[in-house]
Specification:
Shape: globular
Helix content: 25-40%
Number of strands: 8
Order of helices and strands: HEEEHEHEHEHHHHHEHEH
Strand order of the largest sheet: 1-2-4-3-5-6-7-8
Number of helices: 11
Structural class: alpha/beta
Largest sheet: 8 strands, mixed
Length: 329
């Protein structure tokens, strides 16, 4: 189908007039409670993944609801408003949800001498295996920001071999091109986000220093001034990449989109303070037959606040629901 490149229907509340406000205000003031049941899954490399389940209030007539696996963003977790808002709306419409945590993001540091990274698809694959073990025959994937990049990369890697239970996917605020997104985060107006990410990442490196290789322990973290430097000195070598360029180039989901075989929707706001112009690939969007792309003018990063107020379902959450409930086209 033809991509929905521009969506003019979405209008945030007037007082949230720019991308920074649309990003920050929901993250601070949108409070949506979800009750999770946590499951810990041991991984093949003697580590663990923490999975938070939230089931729909009533089971389907068939006894089996569809499941949506939701992936959070950089340094996020299952309690972020964009995750809980998505889970709440999907639960209300008969979907079970599974919000999983990247390693080190669940409130307890992981065991191994590594964390997670923005192209880490092996752990998502392990989470999908758990869902299949639980008996789900219809599984959708939803990812925000870094979680969106991981989700799209995973589906591209799987290509035609993707498990038949996986039916659809949605990526919101996805940094499709990581190299240029790193440039965008170094511009003056986005440095505040850059610093926040570095702060929590550096703290994890300090806490985990006992398990990390000597070369990483020797790095003076005060010298690390941007997310790109952190990724160059720490993320890349820890996860087997030769440096930041190798890491960003090999993990950008943009290169994997053409190999995706299930229907996918990508929603990136034009005023997202994180995203570079390469994250709005209009020409590619027109070529791809399985990937729909929507680039509303407003929304910020993982924000998309509703005109009905901060606690209402966001525009992005509404699009997720609409896309997952459409009859497969």
């Amino acid at each position: 189908g033809m991509p929905l490149l521009e969506s003019s229907t979405y209008r945030p509340p007037v007082y949230l007039w720019n991308g920074h406000l649309q990003t920050v205000i929901p993250s601070l003031f949108r409070k949506i409670g979800v009750r999770y049941v946590r499951q810990r899954v041991e991984t093949a490399d003697d580590d663990f993944l923490d999975l938070d389940w939230s089931k729909a209030p009533s089971p389907a007539d068939s006894g089996q609801n569809p499941l949506v696996i939701v992936s959070h963003g950089l340094e996020g977790d299952s309690t972020r408003q964009y995750i809980t808002g998505t889970v709440r709306l999907l639960n209300q419409h008969g979907f079970d949800c599974l919000a999983w945590h990247f390693r080190s993001c669940s409130g307890e540091l992981n065991r191994q001498a590594r964390f997670y990274h923005i192209g880490e698809t092996g752990d998502l694959h392990a989470v999908i295996q758990e869902a299949l073990k639980a008996g789900y025959q219809t599984i959708h994937l939803v990812g925000y920001s870094a979680g969106g990049n991981i989700t799209l990369k995973y589906l591209g890697e799987q290509g035609a071999t993707v498990h038949p239970a996986i039916k659809r996917a949605v990526g919101i605020s996805v940094p499709l091109d990581l190299l240029t997104t790193a440039d965008r985060l170094e511009q003056w107006d986005s440095m505040v986000y850059n610093r926040r990410f570095q702060k929590t990442l550096k703290e994890k490196v300090r806490q985990k220093s006992g398990t990390l290789p000597a070369a990483i322990r020797a790095i003076d973290l005060r010298r690390v001034r941007s997310l790109r430097q952190f990724d160059d000195l720490i993320t890349a070598p820890l996860h087997g990449f030769s440096g930041v360029t190798d890491y960003y180039t090999r993990n950008s989901s943009l290169a994997f989109l053409s190999k995706i075989t299930v229907p996918v929707l990508v929603v990136n706001a034009r005023n997202d303070p994180f995203l570079s112009s390469e994250c709005f690939p209009e020409a590619l969007a027109k070529e791809l037959t399985r990937v729909w792309m929507e680039f509303p003018r407003q929304g910020g990063h993982c924000g998309f606040p509703s005109a009905n107020g901060l606690q209402a379902p966001t525009y992005a959450e509404t699009r997720v629901l609409q896309f997952l409930t459409r009859s497969a086209g």
